[in-house]
C-alpha cells in the first residue's frame, strides 16, 4: 500500500515539477488557490440535481479537469515544458456565459451572493477564482516564467461562475437578492 504522507514537506518545502520551493512561494499560493477553487466547484456539483442541471454539470466537470491542467501548468518549472491549458476552454466559457446570461433574468443592480445552496457555493467559488487570479497577477509580476493563459482562464471562469450561480437560482425559482443601495449599474 502506498502511504499518503511522504514527510518530505515537514521542513516547509514542497515539490514542483522540476524543483522544490518553500510552501509559501507565490507559485504554490496560486495553484493552492486553484485547488481550493476546484474543491468548491466539487461541492457545488454535489448540490446540483442531476437532471435539472445536466448541462451545468457537464460544464463543471470539464472545468474541474481544466483547473487540474492549470495547477499542473503552474507547478511545472522545468526548462523544457509544454503547457496543457489552451485558449479553447476560454472560448467555451465565453459561449456558455452568453447562453447562461440569456437564460437568467436581466440584471439591473448588484446582487448579494447566495440563494439556493448550490448557487451560494458557486458564488464562493467565484470569489476564490478572483483570489486565484489576483495571486496569478502577483506571480506574473515576480517572474515571466508562468503560463499567462491561466490568469486569463481564471478571469473568464469567475464570470462564468457568476452567470451559472444566477441560472441555478433561476431554475430553482429562487430570486436573486439585489443590493439595496445599488443603483442601476447594468444597462
TrEMBL record:
Catalytic reactions of this protein: 2 cob(II)yrinate a,c diamide + reduced [electron-transfer flavoprotein] + 2 ATP = 2 adenosylcob(III)yrinate a,c-diamide + 2 triphosphate + oxidized [electron-transfer flavoprotein] + 3 H(+); 2 cob(II)alamin + reduced [electron-transfer flavoprotein] + 2 ATP = 2 adenosylcob(III)alamin + 2 triphosphate + oxidized [electron-transfer flavoprotein] + 3 H(+)
Entry's EC annotation: 2.5.1.17
Pfam families, alphabetized: Cob_adeno_trans (PF01923)
Enzyme class: transferase
Pathway recorded for this protein: Cofactor biosynthesis; adenosylcobalamin biosynthesis; adenosylcobalamin from cob(II)yrinate a,c-diamide: step 2/7
Keyword Ligase belongs to the record: no
Domain of life per record: Bacteria
Keywords: ATP-binding, Cobalamin biosynthesis, Nucleotide-binding, Transferase
Record domain Cobalamin adenosyltransferase-like: where: 4-168
Alphabetical list of InterPro entries matching this protein: CblAdoTrfase-like (IPR016030), CblAdoTrfase-like_sf (IPR036451), PduO-typ (IPR029499)
Family: Belongs to the Cob(I)alamin adenosyltransferase family.
Name the UniProt record assigns to this protein: Corrinoid adenosyltransferase
Organism of derivation: Lysinibacillus piscis
Gene: yvqK
Amino acid at each position: 500500500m502506498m502511504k499518503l504522507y511522504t514527510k518530505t514537506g515537514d521542513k516547509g518545502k514542497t515539490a514542483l515539477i522540476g524543483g522544490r520551493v518553500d510552501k509559501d512561494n507565490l507559485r504554490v499560493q496560486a495553484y493552492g488557490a486553484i485547488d481550493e477553487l476546484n474543491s468548491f466547484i466539487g461541492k457545488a456539483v454535489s448540490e446540483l440535481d442531476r437532471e435539472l442541471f445536466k448541462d451545468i454539470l457537464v460544464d463543471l466537470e470539464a472545468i474541474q479537469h481544466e483547473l487540474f491542467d492549470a495547477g499542473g501548468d503552474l507547478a511545472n518549472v522545468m526548462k523544457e515544458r509544454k503547457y496543457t491549458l489552451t485558449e479553447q476552454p476560454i472560448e467555451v466559457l465565453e459561449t456558455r456565459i452568453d447562453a447562461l446570461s440569456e437564460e437568467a433574468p436581466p440584471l439591473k443592480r448588484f446582487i448579494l451572493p447566495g440563494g439556493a445552496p448550490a448557487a451560494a457555493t458557486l458564488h464562493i467559488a467565484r470569489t476564490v477564482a478572483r483570489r486565484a487570479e489576483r495571486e496569478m497577477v502577483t506571480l506574473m509580476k515576480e517572474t515571466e516564467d508562468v503560463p499567462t493563459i491561466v490568469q486569463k482562464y481564471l478571469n473568464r471562469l469567475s464570470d462564468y461562475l457568476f452567470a451559472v450561480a444566477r441560472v441555478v437560482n433561476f431554475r430553482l425559482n429562487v430570486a436573486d437578492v439585489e443590493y439595496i443601495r445599488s443603483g442601476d449599474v447594468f444597462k
